[in-house]
Amino acid sequence: MRPHTPSRFRRAIPLALSCALIAASALAGCAVQPPGAPSSTVSTPATSPNSEDAPGLPITLDPAVIPGLDSSVDETLQAGDYFYISLPKVPGHEAWTTALRDQLNPQLTRFQDSTPGTAKAPYPEFDVNWDLVGASPKAVGVRLSTDEYGVNNSFSGKVEYAWLDLAGGVIRPSSYLIEESKSAEFFSRVRAAAAEDPSIDKDLVTKQTEGDWKGGLNAVGFTTTGRLWVEFDRTKASQAHGSVGVAIRSDGLLSSFGQAARVSALNPSDPSTGKPSPSSAAPTQSATPSQTPSKSATPSPVAPSQSPSKSTSSKPTVAPTTPNPSGAPDCRKLKCVALTFDDGPVAGTASLLDVLKKKGVHATFFVVGKNAAVNPKIIRRMVAEGHVVGNHTWSHKQLTRLSADQMRTEITKASSAIEAGGAPAPTLLRPPYGATNATVAQVAASLGMAQILWNVDPLDWKDRNSAKVTQRVLAATRAGSIVLSHDIHPTTRAAYAGIIDALQAKGYTLVTVPELLGKTTPGKKYFRR
Asked: In the β-sheet with 59-60, what is the strand arrangement from edge to edge?
């Protein structure tokens, strides 16, 4: 046991133990502006693991390096209590997902207790997203980013790199990357690099790096040149937008596990076979276009991303199909209803697609870009089976909190991921939480996208109960309805065979949103036909 492990992980945690042992400390809120928009990514040539001559940029890996990698997604649409949590699901290591969620639960509970009944938009919001930063038979690493928007426009942004030691079957904190006897040297290098970066608040960094790991520092990964990337909690190190960190040389610092983690970042491979994935033979780097590298030994502040680029993403195996082909139902005469599903795709979405295929029904899926990047095969299947794929933004941020440029980035990055999966460029946008305003409408209009909301909400995000979901859909649906549901929930997926049968027995024709609405006006909000 290491006495200097940070408060978020007092020690390495066997996955079989209760995850309450790794409860996270509370976030500190500061009245500052939230971070910037998601960054773009570019591919880089494979880098020699022994070259650290340049700082490089923080590594983010293509999720395809781990076959079967999935997202575990949860959310609530309760106004005043919005949250969206996406965590990794590594095949054969599902206990890690449970441990990460248990770690977050105290933060989420505190957030919910601190924002009861907030009635004024934009609402408080708690968002967690992840990026893959390492993959090999010895180590898997993810970057977890937690953004919390409280009352009075307060913001707190935490970042953590969580490492899974596959040999030991335990979760390792970032401190395990560093040889224990080298901790003082590690922190000395961090402080020296931070001192050269004018965007970093030296006093705040010093409090996190005073010689041990108790200051809360728990975000250590690697850059494309093999250096250590040390990232600070936003608002604890800088007032700048976006993520803030420093790159330091790793020579003489790494523990044996740290060396394995470095290999997993620079030369990623399938944890189950050790074989590199053709689509991720080289890591990707994340860079915010508006930022330039500083003169110091640190790379420019960045926010890692899973965003696929058309130059690196695998090509679709099916040709995109055009929604609403000739011979589509005439919803001017028929009792048409559009079934829509949000927040996927996840692996379980396949079972819902099985139901829809068996019933001969086409639906509309509003997908989150990050999840589309993790599950492009499901996007391809949606297209091949005649469904429509709409845009639910890149990382499910409440758009009304963002600037117009940030909104645009959230939307266009999601569209890129959707197109990389083989779907046509989306013309339909569903703002997360249904939160929209005039600026959202203007941005959507400029991108040629209509806003698709809903008039039937079965509260499947609140009650994970198939019977209740079924009852609410059947009670509220009328001709012209747009029905909201979430394919991330097993109870929702289980309800839809019966829902489809019951709606069709009532004489409803189930169609896609384009079939229901016909031609739409970019920027306009649609709740029903």
From this structure: 40-43, 284-287, 59-60
